[in-house]
Request: fold
Amino acid sequence: MERACVVTLKTICRIAAAIVAMAIGNQAHAQSSVQMYGIVDTWVGIQKYPSKSVSWQEGGGGLSTSFWGFGGKEDLAGGYKAIFAIEGFFRPQNGAYGSFNGDPLFSRNAYVGLSTPAGTITLGRQSSPLYLQACQFNPFYASFTFSPTIVQMYAGLGTYPAYKTDQGLVGGTAWSNAIQYATPEFHGLSGHAMYAFGDSGTDNGSKQYSMQASYRNGGFAAGGVYQYANFNSTAGDLNSLIKGFHSQSAAQLAASYEFSVAKLYGEYTYMNNDVINKAFHVNMFVGGMTIAIGTSRILASYAYSRDSGGLNQTRQTASLGYDYPLSKRTDLYAVYMSDRFAGMSSGETAGVGIRARF
Reply:
């Protein structure tokens, strides 16, 4: 009887020790986590830039620019967490890194930060608040191929790649040497502030900064953002784009409303450009919607831009697409986009593609 009790006690101790070890392991796992994620998106079809001829091609980003990344967090207790993200765009059609030649290896994000009850601070290369808001409030999100919003805002300034235009934003979609503060969400309200330094200690005049606020309540969402830039993707003057170009300020108001089977989007963007001996501005209006048909979606968007005091151009871009999910991670899509500059022959892009998330 005594021996049986001893055996039972030993067994209980072993079980207790195993439970404690398991609890410690689970706690450690919960306190620190790292994951790999990304998107692979490729499309094939025709593309014609304004005033140019039609060409067949395979592209590396139809509805989404392909990217891969690692992200993680560590629970420091008391509501504090250390966070990081390392992400890079790539082109699956040829295996090259970056969304274009000259893009850095970790072109999407490369930051480390601290999350606290009073907000989150991050340092490093980070997606700009204006870019993220512009993506959020249009049906085609971040598509550089088919989104009228993104095509006009980020694929427009200078000569890209065959037509002359002074419309569009400087500074790119991600800012290097950046520090950002994000507020906690409070009754649907949240905000961000970001500042990007120059590339060296002598570049005190080379800077970018942005402030953004957003609000959500049920199916309604709205956002406002302002940014200023006086250098492009690298510190220095903007003469490589437009001679005498010193700086640019931009502001955007956006809103969306989601119904049971449809979602409406609207954006207004104002861009003011400071050039030697003159200044000119661009007004841009965007409207769009998505309609659910079962698990698939119809996407439609239209953007209109008009500059004043520059090249005096108008630009109209419209897209219509269909997105069909094969699973939670993979979808097929077909999209047509028309792109028209005043005084030029129309451009157009049409294609079908497949997108996989991991």
